[in-house]
């Protein structure tokens, strides 16, 4: 199964809040080679909680799936892993739908994660089955 990581990113010069979270979903089949689909999250989604604001980012390097913490290149702050695990695509990958649904299984994120694609969107975590 492909892997995911949830990173806490602090100290980014363009982040007025001073902290956000990056969700990385491994995709070995991208045209540019292995990389991670990435979303910036304003908060960590919780089952039964409010939707969180997201922003889809350009693909990130797969090395972030294995790193526990470290400085971000270009003097863009520091990243620390909050969670990691595996995921299974449920909907939206093959047909590029506006919303991507993945079944995530980590230490913090467990359930079905709904992610809107695009510059601004929302994410929510449901307690649904973690198998597709």
Chart the SSEs and their pairings:
Elements: E1 3-10, E2 19-27, E3 35-41, E4 52-60, E5 69-71, E6 78-91, E7 99-106, E8 110-116, E9 121-126
Antiparallel strand pairs: 1-2, 1-6, 2-3, 3-4, 4-9, 5-6, 6-7, 7-8, 8-9
Structure description:
This protein is mainly beta and 132 residues long. It has one domain. Helices cover 0% and strands 54% of the residues. The chain has no helices and 9 strands. The protein has strands spanning 3-10, 19-27, 35-41, 52-60, 69-71, 78-91, 99-106, 110-116, 121-126. It starts with a strand and ends in a 6-residue tail after the last strand. The mean pLDDT is 86.
Low-confidence stretches: none
The strands making up the biggest β-sheet line up spatially as 1-2-3-4-9-8-7-6
N-to-C span: 11 Å
Report helical residue fraction: under 10%
Overall pLDDT metric: 86
Structural class: mainly beta
What is the N-to-C succession of helices and strands? EEEEEEEEE
Query: What is the CA-atom radius of gyration, in angstroms?
Result: 14 Å
- Count the strands? 9
Count of runs of 4 or more consecutive helical residues: 0
